[in-house]
């Protein structure tokens, strides 16, 4: 099914007039020539659509804040308001997707007048709202508790003091998914670091890098943050638990992570380093997500090294590696962020990610049987695993030549 039809099926009917009209924007693009003629019409329509959407978002948010304040102690009214809050968050997500997709189509038909979706979205209230995220966290906590409580009683046995679900809502509607745990690689995913003596540092360091002093290094290291890093982390921090999992050693990575936290204002819930990785015959630094102790149905790993995923291929979002160049554009905001936002809405991310990136299939094509890897990891022993993976260097060479499909499209 095409994106437009999929989007239309997700819209909440009573809010339909306030969504960004992807259909309208797509229709305008039919008249935009490759030279960019007619692009100004698209620009004007995009501004009009996002302004209407943002105005409704702000009005609805204020209305829900007032409702919650007035509902103090009223369980049914609070439950209804919390459901609306989660709907409003979804409203923002769907509009985010519509804008991103429409801008991408515009840039294909009018490459002479490129638009940055990030520059459009960063000014929109529905894109990133700390107020909404704080309310959504309350809503998720309340509705999870309410849903579990309702499951303990049949309709006949439920005490009158407990209240019921708002009209039209069943128990399943009252259960919100847990917060998504987003596990982020560091080098080549979020940053790129080089020696201060390198040519890249001399060319770009004045305005694109951080100079970080490390205890084990005689000279400061030049660290390039990936374009859009701060906005990317800030956009995710309200609705996700962010974890750094790097194959780097702690003396190297810790000062960089601390710098990211200071610059972005975002605190990572956990930091994992090389000592936390798993040594396997095919890779010395595999990132086994089970060490986190989180629900793997609500955990995702973003990494540029496909071998990092080999113990959890169904939780993988392969990332395009970054080596410090300016050509990366808005990859974090326009390619990765839509994927993670979509995952926030899913009860179990694994079926979707397996279908989207097919990492298990990719490993098999490279000669790595995933069941064999998992059995080796579950205790068959390093020696047995080594015998199961004869010719490992050939395997790694094949992997290097055959990159997986990365998060490169919305």
Structure description:
InterPro entries: FCP1_dom, HAD-like_sf, HAD_sf, SPX_dom, TIM50. One of its GO terms (biological process) is protein transport. Keywords: Mitochondrion, Protein transport, Transit peptide, Translocation, Transport. Its main location: mitochondrion. Residues 175-343 form the FCP1 homology domain. The radius of gyration is 24 Å and the shape is globular. With 410 residues, the protein is an alpha/beta fold. It has 16 helices and ten strands. A five-stranded parallel beta sheet has the order 6-5-1-9-10. The chain has a three-stranded antiparallel beta sheet with strand order 2-4-3, sandwiched between helices. It is 50% helix and 10% strand. The protein folds into two domains: 3-176; 181-401, Rossmann fold, CATH 3.40.50.1000. Helix 2 runs parallel beside helix 4 (75-109), helix 4 crosses helix 6 (130-151) and helix 14 runs antiparallel to helix 15. The model is unreliable at 148-175 and 376-393 (pLDDT under 50). The longest helix is centred in the first third of the chain and has 35 residues, at 75-109.
């Amino acid at each position: 099914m095409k994106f437009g039809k999929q989007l239309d099926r997700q819209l909440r009917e009573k809010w339909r007039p306030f969504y960004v009209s992807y259909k309208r924007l797509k229709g305008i693009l039919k008249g935009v020539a490759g030279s960019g003629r007619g692009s100004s019409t698209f620009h004007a329509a995009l501004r009009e659509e996002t302004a209407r959407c943002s105005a409704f978002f702000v009005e609805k948010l204020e209305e829900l804040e007032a409702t919650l304040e007035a509902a103090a102690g009223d369980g049914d009214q609070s439950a209804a308001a919390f459901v609306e809050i989660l709907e409003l968050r979804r409203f923002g997500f769907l509009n985010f997707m519509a804008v991103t997709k429409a801008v991408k189509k515009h840039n294909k038909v009018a490459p002479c007048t490129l638009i940055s979706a990030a520059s459009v979205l960063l000014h929109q209230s529905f894109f990133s709202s700390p107020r909404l995220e704080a309310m959504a966290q309350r809503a998720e906590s309340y509705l999870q508790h309410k849903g579990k409580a309702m499951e303990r009683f049949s309709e006949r046995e439920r005490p009158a003091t407990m209240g019921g679900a708002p009209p039209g809502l069943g128990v399943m509607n009252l259960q919100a998914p847990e917060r998504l745990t987003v596990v982020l690689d560091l080098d080549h995913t979020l940053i790129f670091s080089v020696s201060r003596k390198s040519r890249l540092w001399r060319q770009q360091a004045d305005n694109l890098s951080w100079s970080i002093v490390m205890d084990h290094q005689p000279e400061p290291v030049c660290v390039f943050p990936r374009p859009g890093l701060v906005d990317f982390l800030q956009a995710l921090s309200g609705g996700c638990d962010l974890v750094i999992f790097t194959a780097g050693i702690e003396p190297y990575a810790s000062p960089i992570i601390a710098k990211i936290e200071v610059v972005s204002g975002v605190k990572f819930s956990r930091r994992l380093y090389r000592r936390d990785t798993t040594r396997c015959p095919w890779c010395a630094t595999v990132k086994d997500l089970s060490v986190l102790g989180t629900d793997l149905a609500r955990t995702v790993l973003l990494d540029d090294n496909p071998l990092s995923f080999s113990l959890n291929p169904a939780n993988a979002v392969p990332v395009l590696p970054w080596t410090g160049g300016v050509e990366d554009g808005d990859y974090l905001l326009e390619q990765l962020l839509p994927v993670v936002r979509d995952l926030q809405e899913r009860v179990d991310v694994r079926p979707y990610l397996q279908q989207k990136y097919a990492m298990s299939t990719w490993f098999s094509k490279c000669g790595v049987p995933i069941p064999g890897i998992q059995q080796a990891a579950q205790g068959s022993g390093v020696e047995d695993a080594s015998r199961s993976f004869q010719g490992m260097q050939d395997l790694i060479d094949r992997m290097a030549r055959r990159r997986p499909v990365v998060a490169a499209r919305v």
